Amino acid sequence: MFGSFRVRVTLALLLSLFFVLGLNNLAVYNITVHTQVEQLREKLMTIAQTAALMVKADTLKDIPLNRAGVDTPSFEEVSAILRKVKDANPMIKYIYIMEKTEKRWIWRFVVDPDPSGKDIEGKFTSYPGDTYDVRRCPGILRALYAPSADKSFTFDEWGVFLSGYAPIRNAKGDAVYVLGVDMPAQDVYSLKKRIYLYTALVLLVGLFISIIIGLVISGRITDPIKKLSEGTRHIAAQDLDYNVDIKGNDEMARLGRSFNSMAHSLFEYRTKLHDYFYRVVQSLIRILEAKDKYTSGHSERVMDYSFDIGSALGFSTEKLELLKKAAHIHDIGKLAISENILNKKEKLTGEEWAAIKEHPSLGGEILKPALLDEEVVSIVRNHHERYDGTGYPDGLKGDDIHLLAQIISVADAYDAMTSPRAYRNTMSKEKAIAELKSCSGTQFNPTIVNAFLKIIA
Predict the structure, then answer these.
(1) Sign (positive/negative) of CA torsion 257, 258, 263, 264?
(2) What are the boundaries of each domain within the chain?
(3) CA of 307: how far to CAs of 112, 129, 274, 303, 415, in Å?
(4) pTM of the prediction?
(5) DSSP conformation letters of 21-48
(6) What average pLDDT does the segment 400-410 reach?
(7) DSSP string, 135-146
(8) Fold for domain 267-456?
């Protein structure tokens, strides 16, 4: 299947369209999700920075970093500020303050105004002094220098979040704490998945459309090529009348018209060549008849008889023309027979009769190299075959013998009987007719005999 040019063109177009569509969908997907996330990151950084400016570092220093720290006035003061920020921004689920430890990735909570809902066994709590591994949210490290936000979603024990951070500075301007805000990213995450699903769906629809477009376009490309290929096969089979039908004004249509023009030129050239060859053969026939004084005019008479039979049988003009040509040169093989044998008055010896019987096959061999129609060669070779299969040179029988050869066989026999020969006198018309009737069904095709008898009646 993949050896087909049309399949390869379809696949090339399909892959090209699919690639472009895939890139387009990927770009839309990335731009949509990226824009959405970037807007949220900017908003989270703004909220975190605003809240950080409302909290004093000195107040945070007074909070003990243990469970009892939640009961101190400083914790309550800072928690009240964080709750106001959270209430003013419903998108925020968690807001908290952390500070770094001696270990790079381990930070600890200072204030979380809402530590409830955490594991009561202390596994995932956020009381003052509780530690947290920040490797999942590297944006918190950058917040020691400037407001920042995580570039991707954070997956931890509390869910899926997008977080923003801002530094809290002391009186010297040093960033000693980081305030963080967490927004549930489940909606954004779901949106991302929906966009991904829609993108995949559009891609599948695009694939289907690409297949249709690919088939249509490849068909328009390959159909003219297929027609031209079919035309070359006809030309190779000597069918020079064949024309390719390619409509339009593009390069393929112009190529099709050029192909038809070439085929027509070849047809005209072959016709002229064949006409020239027939004239040459006709000259040879005249030489033959001059060589055999008893057969003068035989070829023309056989041609006329054959034409009359073909007309009576309703042959087309083209078929009648072919019959005339074949009948006129049917005895061309006798050129290779000795003049002494052709004009011998006595009875022929076995060898001489065998030489005479060679003339149909010799005629075929003479005509074959001249690029004549194979049909004509076959007719000339088979004009002495018999209807019952006892003829020569191939022993063909019945319908295996070319119909035009069977016609020439009847015309040839009648003219031979009614013309003078070196070895006998002329046979009367009546006796020749009786002989044709006698041999109908054995030597001759009965349908052809009956048609000929009506003609010569």
Answers:
(1) positive
(2) 33-191, 267-456
(3) 117, 121, 20, 6, 14
(4) 0.48
(5) HHHHHHHHHHHHHHHHHHHHHHHHHHHH
(6) 95
(7) GG-THHHHTTTS
(8) Hypothetical protein af1432 (1.10.3210)
